[in-house]
Amino acid sequence: MSTLSSEVRLAPRLAPADALPSEAVTRRRKSLGLAATAAAVLVGATVLAAVLAPVIAPYAPNVGITADRLAGFGSHGHLLGTDGQGRDVLSRLIWGARLSLLTGFVPVAVAGTVGTALGVIAGLAGRTLHGTVMRTLDVFYAFPAVLLAITIAAALGSGISNAIIALTVILIPPIARVAETETARLRRADFLEAAAASGARRSSVAVRQVLPNVAPAITVYCTTLVGLSIVYAAGLSFLGLGVSPPTAEWGLMISDARQYIYSAPMVALAPAFAILLASVAFNVLGDGMRRVLDVRSENFA
Amino acid sequence: MSALLEARGLRMTYGNGVRAVDDVDIDIEPGETFGLVGESGCGKSTTAKVILRLEAGQAETMRFEDADLMAAKGAELRRLRARLQVVPQHPATSLNPRLRVSESIVFNLRAHGWSRADRAPRVAELLDRVGLAAQQGRAYPHELSGGQLQRAAIARALATDPRLVICDEAVSALDKSVQAQVLNLLVQLQRDLGIAYLFISHDLSVVEHVSDRVAVMYLGRVVEEGPAEELWARPLHPYTQALLSAEPGQGRERIVLQGDPPSPSDPPSGCTFRTRCAYATEVCAGDRPPLIEITPGHRVACTLHPHPEALLA
């Protein structure tokens, strides 16, 4: 299963510590690049399709005509064929994008907020609080992410909100770690010393001085995590821990298509390809944003 | 007139037992420039951080504008900090790289309750005062030169009308020509606004140029202190003499110190300079020599200069 092998990507990418100081001087507006622009267009198109699903989907997603079941690609009236219950695969993909994107964005947004707050607080705090926060997160971090998500989702019971909670929990530790690393890099910088000496409240220093420096790295990281979250959510649905049938959702569509995997592999292939494409698109987009937001070009030695 | 800053017995001992600052007294009068010189690692910057309450040091007393700076905390400390500001060392990092110069200045204003309407004219006034154009206020730090960055850092420090500005090697990283411009700006600002400076530098020529009084630090202690001209004309401590002789164009005979400064984690007994001092005798290994006033305001901690009363006895 692809979800398990993608787990390695949860480890925060750490750039070399000795970034050239000259980069800070020669910083220029950089463009997104061709690949990332294409990825952005793809993400945009998917979001648009999901929003406009009731308008653009040719059929109702959950109503099938049994007589038309397992129609192949390009069948008359069914561009991507029909599934085992005669439902139009394209329509289900479009409707499924709503839930898949939801399970991609919501956990990352919540975990991004909570994780950044925890990371910045830990990064600025004294040794005791820093240790308490980071070691607690390490406990979660120590579990394989997918296993933890499955455990939490199984404990909470199936359902999309529980899947989102489970994904949020597993995404907080890596995001917090990135935020903490970024904050720790700044700690000895002169401008934070001046900010501390300015007489501003510590919360104000964290929000107005530290956050603007941490945000770009977090934005880049979270963008790539959206793709990962979609993959994980699909995995949970595949295992029956996410969305319940007959709702259209990419992971669940693969699960439904399992029984025809030999007779009609195309039924499983369409949602699998959608998941792959979304995951790759968010990753490429994240890499492009790294260039644009110029993450890690400053050096505070 | 009472002193603006009156610090007695400043100490900063790190967890590993290193005494970075060991019993330092610093008095600064309103509107004067107090220079603090010494080699790198002698505790100059740590002294500044203890005064700024950025390092958890100790002091017998530390009063600023008649308030107890050492005991102040919370709102009281924040209020005092408006009057006690810092210009940091490195131009490249003294301003937040993700904020416009004006936003960095606004941050200090906001911290002390300046209303949104009052901030913009104040920022414009400050930029003008330090010789920056309004356009440079809208720039990000990476778009400015080192000298412009330090001017911006000075503008930020001045935002809340401080009475004491600590310049921690504020011009050390700049080219000589830019250095002179920034120093002249600091002198001009002092004349206009009546600010006092604690001017920290390893560069004697810079300190001499701006200071009214100077203290020389060695291994966490002040070894000599006095009016700038007097100290330059008549250095009493062998360490001060060696430092001054290293300055070009002084016409002094060059005194070359042997060896490196001893480890601050294991300082020599008595006078900490005795391991490198040409005049050291066994007396120097005994008690630590106290600062003794030789002429009014000129004090030295050296066994070569015993207390005048001891000579009479």
List the helices and strands and how they pair.
The complex is a heterodimer of chains A (301) and B (313).
Chain A: H1 2-5, H2 22-25, H3 34-51, H4 53-56, H5 89-124, H6 127-142, H7 145-156, H8 160-186, H9 190-197, H10 202-238, H11 250-257, H12 265-293
Helix pairs in contact in A: 3-5, 3-12, 5-6, 5-8, 5-10, 6-8, 7-8, 8-10, 9-10, 10-11, 10-12, 11-12
Chain B: E1 5-13, E2 19-28, E3 33-37, H1 44-51, E4 61-64, E5 67-68, H2 74-81, E6 84-87, H3 101-111, H4 116-129, H5 134-137, H6 146-158, E7 164-168, H7 176-193, E8 196-201, H8 204-210, E9 213-218, E10 221-227, H9 228-233, H10 238-245, E11 292-295, E12 298-300, H11 308-312
Parallel strand pairs in B: 3-8, 3-9, 6-7, 7-8
Antiparallel strand pairs in B: 1-2, 1-4, 4-5, 9-10, 10-12, 11-12
Let me know the number of strands of chain B: 12
Question: How many strands in all of chain A?
Answer: 0
CATH architecture of chain A: Orthogonal Bundle
Oligomer: heterodimer
Describe this structure in words.
The complex is a heterodimer of chains A (301) and B (313). By secondary structure, chain A is mostly helical. Chain A has one domain (30-56, 88-293): Orthogonal Bundle (MetI-like fold). Chain A is 67% helix and 0% strand. Chain A has helices spanning 2-5, 22-25, 34-51, 53-56, 89-124, 127-142, 145-156, 160-186, 190-197, 202-238, 250-257, 265-293. The longest helix of chain A is centred in the C-terminal third of the chain and has 37 residues, at 202-238. Chain A starts with a helix and ends in an 8-residue tail after the last helix. In chain B, strands 6-7-8-3-9-10-12-11 form an eight-stranded mixed β-sheet, with helices on both faces. A four-stranded antiparallel β-sheet of chain B has the order 2-1-4-5, with helices on one face. Chain B has a single domain, classed as P-loop containing nucleotide triphosphate hydrolases (Rossmann fold), CATH 3.40.50.300. Chain B starts with a strand and ends with a helix. By secondary structure, chain B is α/β, with parallel strands linked by helices. Chain B has helices at 44-51, 74-81, 101-111, 116-129, 134-137, 146-158, 176-193, 204-210, 228-233, 238-245, 308-312, and strands spanning 5-13, 19-28, 33-37, 61-64, 67-68, 84-87, 164-168, 196-201, 213-218, 221-227, 292-295, 298-300. Chain B has eleven helices and twelve strands. The interface between A and B is medium-sized, with 24 and 35 residues.
